[in-house]
Amino acid sequence: TRKPEEPENWYNLACSYALIQRTEDAVKALDRAVGLGYDDAAWMLRDDDLKPLHADPRFRAIVRRVQRTRV
Question: Considering the entire predicted model, what is its pTM?
Fold first, then answer.
């Protein structure tokens, strides 16, 4: 079953896009995942699938946003 409101689905989509160098789509999907409640910033920083995004300021902004909400 498709569950478009599940944050993990969007997170996994972001990982897939990042791995095939579709940075714009990856950032959008990650932002959507966070908007739906994905909140594991530590994992985002360790997840090898997202390494292609680490230099992108939008990725860093998303991580900071998550870190602020978890405090």
Answer: 0.91
